[in-house]
Amino acid sequence: MLIANNDADGAVLLRCTALTIGFQRPLIGPLNLSLQVGERLLLTGPNGSGKSLLLCALTGSARIFSGQLAIESAALAYLAQEHPRPSPWPLSGHDWFAAMRTKAPTLPAIQALLTQRLDRLSGGQWQLLRLAAVLSSAQDSVGNPLILLDEPSNHLDAEVRATAVQLIRELPHACTLLLTSHDQEFIRELGWSPTPMEQLLEHA
Description:
Elements: E1 2-4, E2 12-22, E3 26-36, E4 40-44, H1 51-59, E5 63-71, E6 74-79, H2 93-99, H3 108-111, H4 123-140, E7 144-150, H5 158-169, E8 176-180, H6 184-190, E9 195-196
Parallel strand pairs: 1-5, 4-8, 4-9, 6-7, 7-8
Antiparallel strand pairs: 2-3, 2-5
Helix pairs in contact: 4-5
């Protein structure tokens, strides 16, 4: 069951209660999760543990078989693991931020990519642009931003990794963040305490 409502106390932005999720059939659950406005949650676990599936359920691209999902008037911003680059015509970094209807951060590593064609960027540079655009658009939104980042360190090389960490760490306190990763080095660089995915499951 999917429920979108406003919590009376106004503090809880996201609550999952006994949620069982999957695609054609249930794959994980029941699980429980609660996020307050401004909270950061870093979910860890091996591939196949359900981290990405949970984010898919929150965005409506996976099926909820039972339980309840309550989201309070949040503006969702989602970075999927993979996103093919637009190919019909050459687009620049400027064009990508314009398409996302947001402004590029002023960090030098981002500014240096704005005049370059997307099809000529490295995998790490493209991932950094995607991440920056998602975070910027979330901060432009009306209401409480709920940012979902699925393995944001994918493809990041040493040249851009520090900038990605800086973008995430410097998010305003009003932004609520749910991030998944199994990249131990990236987790250490963020400096946040991770929560294993299995801790959300009722049988854990």
